[in-house]
Design a protein that fits this description.
This protein is mainly α. The protein contains 4 helices and no strands.
Length: 124
Amino acid sequence: METRIFFIAVAVILILYIYRNVRKNQISQDESILWMIGAIIILIFGIWPELIIKLADVVGIDYAPSLLFLLGCVFLFVFCFRNSQMLSDLKEKNKELIQDAALLDKRIRDLEKEMKQMRKEKDD
């Protein structure tokens, strides 16, 4: 019974913490969805711990706590994969921004040269 209360408390604290971070814009809503799913799963398993045993039997795992370990690993794998996708996307956007900035810088230098030439011609 104490374990059940502990996991329910952990899940509720996680949900509140995630919600607080979304409201303070410390984490995006998209990022929070995956964390909220994980917290809700912890809450479900905290309320109904026998669900772990039933799921382990369905999957064919003899030792039910190892199912928790497997689910945790899968969750972390999905989270890392999603972060890897976002990082790749940000690298591509960063590259495009650098290229755009370089083109704008070149355009500014060219315009400055033209202005100098026009002033020089005007003075002559």
